[in-house]
């Protein structure tokens, strides 16, 4: 354990978050997402795990991870098939965490386009989220010189 860090952030996750650079994508996925096979195509090359609900994982990650403020697609969610405007409770909860961290409204990404974006990501964290469509992409921003 380390002081000041959310205990959900294990050593493997902290390593990946620290290694990522500005513009790299992080995928936070539910238990149904093909995380292992998709993660094999990412920069990191293997899946990370935090076995908690998606919103808890996003809160922990955003406690140390800045969201990009230079692009329109810095926060995204997998959209419900054939219902791009539907916002499920898991999506609303994660949006609340993104908003609390100063992030933008999440854009929706069609399911297969989300898979494509995920394969281009730096890393995939598979969560313990069991609700459908608990899959999110967060693009890393910068930490200013003052560290805030």
Automatic annotation (TrEMBL):
GO terms for molecular function: D-ribose pyranase activity; fucose binding; L-fucose mutarotase activity. Keywords: Isomerase. InterPro entries: RbsD-like_sf, RbsD/FucU_mutarotase, RbsD_FucU. This is Ribose ABC transporter. It catalyses: beta-D-ribopyranose = beta-D-ribofuranose; alpha-L-fucose = beta-L-fucose. The lineage of its organism: Bacteria, Pseudomonadati, Pseudomonadota, Alphaproteobacteria, Rhodobacterales. The keyword Isomerase applies. It comes from the Bacteria. GO terms for biological process: fucose metabolic process. It holds the Pfam family RbsD_FucU. The keyword Isomerase applies. Gene3D superfamilies: RbsD-like domain (3.40.1650.10).
